[in-house]
Design a protein that fits this description.
The protein is of the alpha/beta class. The protein has two domains: 2-131, Response regulator (Rossmann fold, 3-Layer(aba) Sandwich); 160-332, Hypothetical protein af1432 (Orthogonal Bundle), CATH 1.10.3210.10. It has 14 helices and five strands. Helix 7 packs across helix 11 (242-253) and helix 11 crosses helix 12 (274-288). The two termini are 58 Å apart. The mean pLDDT is 79.
Amino acid sequence: MIIYIVNASPALTPCLESALLKLGNEVHAEIVSNNSDLVLLFNEQGKPDLLVIDDTLLTADASDMLRTVFDGDEDCSFPVIVLFDLFNPNVFAAAYRLGIHDVILTSADPERFFNKIRNLVFVHQKIIHLENTIENLNKKMSSMQYEDILGMCRMAEARDGFLGGHLDRVGHYSAKIAKNMGIGDHECMMFNCASKLHDIGKVGIPDHILNKPGKLTQEEFETVKTHSVRGFEIVRGCQQNVLLDQAKEVILYHHESWDGSGYPYGLRGDEIPPLARIVKVVDVFDALMSKRAYKEPWDFDTAVDYLRKNCNVQFEPAIVDIFLGLVSKSDFD
């Protein structure tokens, strides 16, 4: 537990020293002697778990300073205790006007300060434990939820006639492109997972359309195009986290085209989220290289030529350049 202490009164020093000695390693105290140093402490290290001040900070100027360090936090996310050595009713009035949590007269009750902080330390430890428990539970739920959604995607992948790890290749190459564009390792790892969910909406497309051996009618093609919005609605209904936030962008926009001719909204250029632009390139390339119900796989050079010819049409040129610098024919043999 981190405590900031402002002590400008020598009379309070024995009380503070005694309490900190008893608390030992349970607390880390930063002690300053004036208002300016307290402001500096807030600026450099952020808010504490507890602020202890003496009554000299309740002057008009000091009260303004306190409002500054509270940073507009009306409820104050950390408790504040005022210590004073001699009883003064004005101290109580000034303290409670500022929203101070407690006022302790150390000369009348020197043990109260120690007991108060000991109780706050106990509560703080329980809160930290509860927060960690909730965080771990949310992570577990998010992991289970992602695995369930990914399972649906693999089912859709199999129904769509993809064989040989289309989702894994899209995830792998999308993350490699993102890393090459300067995105951090952790974000790339999340993107690898998120991009695998791009076609989750195809679970709602009938088999006779997904596996039709010939050309789709215009009506059938319009049905297929609904998979972007269908997928977005599936993921939007789940408990949200960073991974699924990325996935929603990819799912909804990975069929938009650089020139505005894509779907579902006809976005163009920088209007398309960057992650969706990346997945667009990898998804199309891998689809061209894969056997489908309606076509044989393309050869590597023909698929590369297709990407180049459709720069500034379907694809962002910079992403195509990065991808072609990373992809290898052996990955598709």
